User: Fold these one by one.
Assistant:
Number 1:
Amino acid sequence: MKNLEGGLLEYETAGKFLADIKKEFERGDEEIVKVAELKRLEQEGKPMEEFVHEFRRVARGSRYEERPLVEEFKREMNKICQRLIESE
């Protein structure tokens, strides 16, 4: 691949071009899948330690960092607190 005037890229073969395109989209797909998995994650009947471990595992591949990640964690904690309040 070499750079041409005007910023266009030239590929030696169509296969190399398609491989680069696929690689770029797969990277984005992986993040999207991890974010969706993070949003679906629930404690359900798991011990808190297991939930935290699973949350961290899923968060590693997501694009979330710092504050948005904390917000996702708080979302599930709020559900847990609500269930405790309702069970009283």
Note: The first strand starts at residue 2 and ends at 3.
Number 2:
Amino acid sequence: MPDLLDVKGLTCPLPVLRVRKRIRDMPAGGALTILATDPGAPRDIQALCETEGLEYQGAREIDGAFEIQIRRGA
């Protein structure tokens, strides 16, 4: 089951900074689900994944919030 990080209500750059802090403690192969309301969060987190070597698994909008899935490589 993925770890959950709720950054709803936070605006750029805080969601990305919180994700970056959380991934430091993630084990290899670990998954993280991020809940965000900032409309730029999916794009920003995808860019973070590209620079940090994480797997961006996608995002979907649910009830005005984004659910973003990422995974740390093995």
Note: The chain has a mean pLDDT of 95.
Number 3:
Amino acid sequence: MQLKKRDIRSVFSKLKMRVEATHHKIAYFEYNGIEYLKTRVSHGEGEIPKPVVERIRKQLFLNHAQFQDLVKCPMGYDEFVAALQERGIIPE
């Protein structure tokens, strides 16, 4: 799956991730005040290489179908939280 950096930044926003701008944009997912995961993307525009997209997907603990749903919008914040709870990443 080929993605643009703006697609990933919109995912960060949709998931209410805290983003810090260093030499990359580092996004932290917090739930009930506890940080559970983080990922990053470089600044700028353009395409993200496929290996980097795959790394981001894995860091979000999603399978391919779930990640596509997240990017294409059927999956929102609540569905993401439910997916992480099903996998035991965050408490219910």
Note: The chain has one domain: 3-84.
